[in-house]
Amino acid sequence: MTKPVIETTAMIAGMRPELQDAEFAFVVWPHDKAWPEGTRASCMEAEGLSLIVPIDAAPAGAISMKCITLRVHSSLEGVGLTAAVSDALAQSDIPANMVAGYHHDHVYVPSNLAEKAVAVLLDLQQGAGK
C-alpha cells in the first residue's frame, strides 16, 4: 500500500485521471429496495437515500454520468485537490460531482463531456508538475 499524498501540488501532479468505461446515474432509492448490482456509492440525505448506480438501473431520463478516478492516493487530510479539480472543470463549463473514497477521489461528469474533462484534468496535472 502506498503512503497517502498530503501536499497539494504533489496530489495534483500525481492525480493521473483515468476514465472508467461504465455509465452511471445519481438516483434517489427506496430504503426497502435492494441496491442494484454495481452500485458505486451511497449518501443518506434528509430527503432520502441517494445512490450512484449503473445507468441501466436508473429510471428513464436519468442523467448519464461517467466516472473519472484520480489515481493518486490522496490523504483524507490533504487540502486543495478537490478545489483545484472543481475549479479547472468549472473554467471549462463542465459540471463535476466529487466523491471521495479512502484511497482515491472520483469525479462524475456528464457522459458527453467526459473526454473533454479528462483533457482538462491532464492539463491541470501537467501544469502542477512544472
TrEMBL record:
Gene3D superfamilies recorded: VC0802-like (3.30.2130.10)
Name of protein: ACT domain protein
Alphabetized PANTHER family for the sequence: BLR5128 PROTEIN (PTHR39199)
Protein species of origin: Ruegeria atlantica
InterPro entries per UniProt: ACT-like_dom_sf, CASTOR_ACT_dom, DUF2241
Source species, domain of life: Bacteria
Residue span, CASTOR ACT domain: 66-121
Domain DUF2241: 10-63
